[in-house]
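re: that complex we talked abt at group meeting.

here r the seqs, copy pasted straight from the sheet so there may be weird spacing, ignore it
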Amino acid sequence: MMLRPIGILGGMGPEATSLLQRKLVEAVPASDDRDHIPLLIDMNPQVPSRIAHLIEGAGEDPGPTLAAMARRLQDFGALALAMPCNTAHHYAKAITDAVDIPLLNMVELTADHATKAIGSGGCVGMLASPAMRRTRLIETALRVRGLSVVWPADDDPMLAAIRKIKIDGPCVEARETLRAASKELAAAGADLQCVACSEFSLIADSVAAEANAIDTIDLLVRAMIEFSQTGHLGETE
Amino acid sequence: MMLRPIGILGGMGPEATSLLQRKLVEAVPASDDRDHIPLLIDMNPQVPSRIAHLIEGAGEDPGPTLAAMARRLQDFGALALAMPCNTAHHYAKAITDAVDIPLLNMVELTADHATKAIGSGGCVGMLASPAMRRTRLIETALRVRGLSVVWPADDDPMLAAIRKIKIDGPCVEARETLRAASKELAAAGADLQCVACSEFSLIADSVAAEANAIDTIDLLVRAMIEFSQTGHLGETE
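got the structure back, here u go
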């Protein structure tokens, strides 16, 4: 089978990119190396901070850096792009404007999945970065599909948990924060909860037991495998 | 600190490349994403089989594919190259001939480390692919430094264990094979044992308790961090 190489805008952070790679390897039934998806990865931990730009209103715009990475990946031979960082999808237009190949857009994949999973009128709970909330990116994608959105009331513990995972990796404090937020969303009536932050993906098993949760990175993995194997960009399940 | 990007000739197999990335992330004390080493990764699981070419004498020469990958990584902006596959170092000359940037050669790093660790006259036990043995690559590198080499008597279980890890990931049978081989090398008088196959790196904690073992991928990690941070290509410790 001819497999199409996919370019990864990576390093935001490095552990999220590694997690995507691990999930891709696990999701492909392989009898030899050559069954696995070819990837071209720009692991660039020096992309200007999305959180600094979006929340603190300080620091460099990451858009031009991401656009340059996308162009290089296209030149390198990538036939589609993927970006294992939900917040960075705020800069999706800068990326797609820079290239002729498609971006497997994790936010759009998530909104499509939610529509199918709980139907129009449903309520989606978000376990994501406050920077993601600030962009209203997922909100917009869900609302045009007739779904509503609920977030944890307090942003600060979520941001602190993300920063702690970036420094220490998965840790008990972050797990407790995620579980409490997930319980809060379930109580607020979320029909589906989206783990939509690559750091939280590392501890996605810590959502509340009563949550009906999906991980956006798993939706990206499915879309990548389908594109690589078939060239198809449509629905991912 | 300006960090130099390193190009990875990866995908041989994908899990070994992921392991290298994970070890790099763990080895860098980071307070933010931007402290991590920038990598440009050509994750190409479709490189022609090194084992088929070297052992079975069948199949395509991987050299030209690796040379093309190296050139693309240089064009992409890599300032040095690394390859988390010991056996593929048989093709190191095809790679270095194709580019103007250095290859952080895992075999040479291993031979240098062994010389320092046990001194000239010492005996190094190899836990590696029979394809690696066939190339006499590490043997040559060690012998010019005055060290001798010992291998497990029977190649077949080692090859079977590598193939099993490529299909199933780390598994009990492969761990038992590695432990038995490591006991055999200790009994044969190895002063140092080298885990020199990226598949065995995934189960390196299964060497015999009495073994004085190092993992070649850890030597590569140290050399990559030093190069990225300082531009220095010299001794790695």
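couple things i noticed - Chain B has two domains: 6-105+217-236, 106-216. The interface with chain A takes residues 3, 5, 11-15, 17-18, 21-22, 24-25, 30-47, 49, 72, 75-77, 166-167 of chain B (CB under 8 Å).
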